[in-house]
Amino acid sequence: MNNDRRKFISHLSLVTAFAALSKPLGSIASASKKINTLSSSGREVAVYHTNDLHGNIHPVSGETGGLNQIQTLLKKQETHGLLLDAGGFLDLSKSNSAQKMMIQIMNEMGYHAAAIGDDELALGQDHLASLAQHMQFSLVNCNYGFDKCLNNRVKPYIIIKSGRFKTGVTSVGYKVDGVKYYDAIQSANTVASHLKQMEKCDLVICLSHLGYEQPGDQPDDKKLAKQSEHIDLIISGHNRQLSIGPAVLLNRLKHEVIVGRGASNGLMMGKAVFNFENDKQKHNLKAKNLVAGQRFDETFAAPFA
Description:
Layout: H1 3-10, E1 14-17, H2 26-32, E2 44-50, H3 69-75, E3 82-85, H4 96-109, E4 113-115, H5 118-121, H6 125-132, E5 138-140, E6 144-145, H7 148-151, E7 154-155, E8 157-162, E9 165-173, E10 180-181, H8 184-198, E11 203-209, H9 221-226, E12 233-236, E13 247-250, E14 256-260, E15 268-276, E16 282-291, E17 297-300
Parallel strand pairs: 2-3, 3-4, 4-5, 5-7, 9-11, 11-12, 12-14
Antiparallel strand pairs: 1-17, 2-15, 6-10, 8-9, 13-14, 15-16
């Protein structure tokens, strides 16, 4: 292990934070503002992330001239960074108008990109394409082959400039009926290599709707992390279990890969802040989860595996 990697490990700090949350995603809203104000500090990139929301951002009218609760909370924040979702944000048991409302609130919160999960595809590609025209955030995926109606609305990756840093974002999902599937781990690694080596991204993020851990040889986030070379952060979707915080795994090169995941139904979101030195070498990480309950901070050793 070289000195730079040792230095990163020695400065690695993982923090779990629990914040009051009276309704699903109230905490997320209060933590995030409209986050796509990307005037970050000169040495860090902050990433806020959600997964498996299933439509659980609830608008309510109040005393704020027609604004819903989340809009009101967002306007009070001064937060910068990226806001990303690892898929499963739609609840297809709800009406079409309710699904559009969910997308509108995600627009207002400032989401930059979202993965495509099985929930988004459950009613077919035409249905998702009709909803995508209302999205002000990007749908991202690199291992599905879509019909023409949806293909034009999905990007294999996006690049976001945050301050002086370039962040590349791609996404993968598992096999879904009616959608052409390409190997998720191979696809993610191919795109990540392009983003890091050709596009010169300082940070590469994969939004994964594979699940954190799957049986046998099924692809999952742990396998993806361990078989990767250029992915810095995996945001994990298709999960039902609570987690106390992010995991730190080692890739093929024995470098750290952060795997962050929240809880389903809007009960937990994550935040990861990557700090860089002057040469853009990753220097340390601070990661938080925002969960229903009382707020407390706990620092703990990174769980290497």
